[in-house]
Amino acid sequence: MEYPKDELISKALAFATKAHAGVVRRWTGEPYVEHAMRVAGHLAGLGFGPEVVAAGLLHDVLEDTDTGPAELVTLFGPYVAAMVLEVTKPAMPKLPGNKDERKAAMRLHLAGSSYEGASIKLADMIDNSSNVADHDPEFATGYLAEMRRIAPLLNHGHPMLVAELADNLAK
């Protein structure tokens, strides 16, 4: 991946690599940080600045690691942390029977995202949708259906990402 030469991006890449160390992608078995790197690379390729690219690298650390929002603010500043929070599932207890409520809360949360936040989530969904059906068709059925519910809520993101996700989800 080619990223702009920037200290913030380098720091975010190092942090994401350490935070996701030992974690592999569910359907490919690759190191998880490679997903974050593709998301960030997509954003960089569209000309997003270092803060957005850094947030792309960090987009899953709050959900998938022990990292807290305050740590992101301290290390990367309030703007990067805010973008990561925009694409992070709202905190809700994972109680039996409230899966649909959690999904609805996430859709509502994403609908209120900024242009940058929506663009990060679109790049994330593009990467996630690119090969899930090839590797785990059973999981893909429900997963892609939920993506189809979310996609229209992100139409305020980068138009090229909106179109690319629409293409992926039409397959």
List the main descriptive attributes of the protein structure presented here.
171 residues; mainly alpha; globular; Hypothetical protein af1432
Distance between the termini: 26 Å
Q: How many domains comprise the coordinates? A: 1
Number of helices, counting only DSSP H or I runs of 4 residues or more: 11
DSSP summary, beta strand count: 0
Overall geometric form: globular
Please give the oligomerization state of what you see: single chain
- What Rg do the Cα atoms give? 15 Å
Query: What structural category do the secondary elements indicate?
Result: mainly alpha
As for the CATH topology, it is Hypothetical protein af1432
Can you summarize the main beta sheet? none
Beta-strand residue percentage: under 5%
Q: How much is the average pLDDT?
A: 91
Unreliable segments of 5+ consecutive residues: none
CATH class: Mainly Alpha
Which architecture per CATH? Orthogonal Bundle
Helix content: 55-70%
Instruction: Give the SSE order as H and E letters.
Output: HHHHHHHHHHH
CATH superfamily: Hypothetical protein af1432
Structural features, described:
It is a single chain. The chain is mostly helical and 171 residues long. The protein has one domain: Hypothetical protein af1432 (Orthogonal Bundle). It is 67% helix and 0% strand. Helix 3 packs across helix 6.
Secondary structure elements and pairings:
Layout: H1 7-19, H2 33-45, H3 50-58, H4 61-64, H5 69-76, H6 78-86, H7 99-111, H8 115-129, H9 132-135, H10 137-150, H11 159-170
